Amino acid sequence: MLLSSLKCIRIAALAAAGMVLGTQIAFSQESSIRSQWLNTPGSRVEALAVLQTLNSDLLSNASATLTLDRWCAAHKLAPEGSKIVAQRVRGQDKPADEHIRELLTVGPGELIAYRRVRLVCGDRVLSEADNWYLPAKLTAEMNQALDTSDIAFGRAVQALNFTRTNLSAKLLWSPLSEGWDMDGLVAHEISSPSLPPFLLEHRAVLKLQDGTPFSAVVERYTDKVLDFPVPRLLSQ
Fold first, then answer.
1. Computed over its alpha carbons, how large is the radius of gyration of the chain?
2. Fewest beta carbons within 10 Å, which of 34, 37, 150, 202?
3. Is 145 exposed, middle or buried (0-12, 13-18, 19+ CB in 10 A)?
4. What are the residues whose beta carbons fall under 8 Å from the beta carbon of 218, sequence distance 6 or more?
5. pLDDT above 60 for 60
6. What value does the mean pLDDT take over residues 153-181?
7. Which InterPro entries match (predicted)?
8. pLDDT band for position 32 (cuts 50, 70, 90)
9. Residue 6: phi, psi to the nearest 5?
10. What residue ranges define each of the domains in the chain, with the CATH number in brackets?
11. φ, ψ (nearest 5 deg) of residue 213
């Protein structure tokens, strides 16, 4: 009996060690992929091109959710068929201030709901977002879905055929030093040894077809949007 118990304990310990090792290897591989973007001046130029491509896609489409769906699929960041889901972040509510009420053109008495989420594809968090919205402008079904599930906001209100007015788009990190286009590329950059957690920030207002605003969002896109190998240079 004692030998049997010891054997079980040993097997459990080995299994736990294997799980830890597997997690460490997976993390190491992901970190290695992202660090490839910093290896050479050429890969840094590619990183800037990729970021600006994502930036352009987000700015030219009304729904960040659907844009990230396509980005995740195109860059194989999750198993085939995966869609963006919203992980609710609770306990960090931010009441709408005067600026948000001005953006939504409502007075102090009108209800503004708040939602903080992490938009996830597979096991990768691609963005974190603050969203202030007007429940009165949505259907009862939309409000119920937003209140009771982890559906992404853009998917929940897709039937509104909404438009997006971008207020700002900011690169929170640049892979190249300021003035690189005139002064040339530095062979060995040391200013950014690793990618920061957030790379882009967008602020926008979502509007109904008649131009009525119903949502104000602040979106921050993470380093996981670059979690795929650096593009290969192909010969003609």
1. 22
2. 150
3. middle
4. 129, 130, 201, 202, 203
5. yes
6. 91
7. Chorismate_lyase_/UTRA_dom_sf
8. low
9. -65, -40
10. 37-174+202-225 (3.40.1410.10)
11. -75, 140
79 and 150 Cβ atoms separated by less than 8 Å: no
- pLDDT tier for residue 56 given thresholds of 50, 70 and 90: very high
Written as six digits, the tokens of 200 are: 């882009």
For the cut 70, the answer to whether the pLDDT of residue 18 exceeds it is no
Task: DSSP for 155-223, please give it.
Answer: HHTGGG--EEEEEEEEES--SS-TTHHHH---SS--S-SS--SEEEEEEEEEE-TTS-EEEEEEEEEEG
Q: Which residue matches tokens 């969002």? A: 217
In the block, residue with structure tokens 């990230």:
68
Over the stretch 77-109, which tens digit does the pLDDT of each residue have?
999 999 999 999 988 889 999 999 999 999 988
- Do 122 and 77 meet the contact criterion of CB atoms below 8 Å apart? yes
Q: Count Cβ atoms within 10 A of the Cβ of residue 72 and give its class: 0-12 exposed, 13-18 middle, 19 or more buried.
A: buried
- For the record, the structure tokens of 214 come out as 């119903």
d(CA 170, CA 191): 20
pLDDT at 39: 74
Alpha helices per DSSP H over the chain: 2-35, 41-59, 64-74, 98-104, 140-148, 153-156, 180-183
Q: Over 70: is that where the pLDDT of 193 sits?
A: no
Query: pLDDT digit string (tens) for 99-158?
Result: 999 999 999 889 999 999 999 999 999 999 999 999 999 999 999 999 999 899 999 999
